[in-house]
Amino acid sequence: MKKQNFEIVSAQSNIDWVGRKVTGAHNGTISIKSGTINVNDGEFAGGRVVVDTTSINILDITDPATNAQFAGHLASDDFFGIERFPEAVLVITTVNNSEVEGNLTIKDITHPVRFNASVDVNGDLLTAAGRIVIDRTKYGIKFRSGNFFKNLGDTLIYNDFELNISLTAKAVA
């Protein structure tokens, strides 16, 4: 069995996020700090992805003051608490064809996740893409969640948010 390890190239990898609320949605990016992808006989087998929560960026709010206020709120304990939790980690434990299972840790809280991913290995280069839908309340992010607060009306924020991940990795010698 030929085993290969690939190191994620952070500058060529990214995560696009979307969070929805009653009155619309917000979107942005968050950086991948580091990670490795394991391949056995040319097939995706596992890995670990470290996300830099301090890099959260909002793309849909163009007013600088409003953008900075929202970014500060996402960084606060109401959401990701980036001072105490500057990283989130996805550990991929099982891969079955395109179905990936793993453990996602946000704010030191870990839960299993399952999602589909496409992975292409071409010599020393690996590219991968996947979409994960996450229930934020499982990670202690309860701000304006209808599960925890009543009578929110049009200020309600939906519990699920999505991460669209795009990775580029290079083989480690």
Enumerate the spans where pLDDT stays under 50 for 5 or more consecutive residues: none
- CA distance, first residue to last residue: 17 Å
Count the DSSP helices. Answer: 1
Using DSSP, what is the number of strands?
A: 9
What proportion strand? Answer: over 45%
Name given to the CATH architecture: Beta Barrel
Radius of gyration: 17 Å
Main structural class:
mainly beta
Indicate the CATH topology. Answer: Lipocalin
Relative helix content: under 10%
Protein name: Lipid-binding protein
Domain Lipid/polyisoprenoid-binding YceI-like: 5-170
InterPro entries: Lipid/polyisoprenoid-bd_YceI, TTHA0802/YceI-like_sf
Structure description:
The protein has 173 residues and is mainly β. The chain has one domain (3-171): Lipid/polyisoprenoid-binding, YceI-like (Lipocalin). Helices cover 7% and strands 61% of the residues. It has one helix at 64-75; strands at residues 3-8, 14-21, 24-40, 43-58, 87-96, 99-106, 109-122, 125-135, 157-171. Strands 1, 2, 3, 4, 5, 6, 7, 8 and 9 form a nine-stranded antiparallel β-sheet that branches. Strand 6 (99-106) and strand 7 (109-122) form a beta hairpin. The longest helix has 12 residues, at 64-75. The chain starts with a strand and ends with a strand. The model has no long low-confidence stretch (mean pLDDT 90).
